[in-house]
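Lecture notes, unit on protein representations.

Consider one protein chain, 97 amino acids long.
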Amino acid sequence: MEFTYHGGGLGKGGDIALYYDIKLVGTGRVGATQAMIFSADETTDVGYGYGTPVTADYTTKDSRSKGRINRVQIDLGDDENDHFIDPDERMRIIMAG
């Protein structure tokens, strides 16, 4: 999967491309991303959803992949870091909660 963040602040969207065996098999647009707070019990699962399912189409019980995952590659690429917030804004958000 390749995600190209559009930037411009927190929680903005981007374009997504899905690859299977190095071949592009799908593309789409993500309208928004998680701005900053994630559940403490969620993980980055590959081949099995241990936590909350991303869709109601399956449960964690039947989410295990029956295929074989030979490789996962994570490339961070170039980033303008325009989605980061400065320390003063971070403190304002913390105090507001």
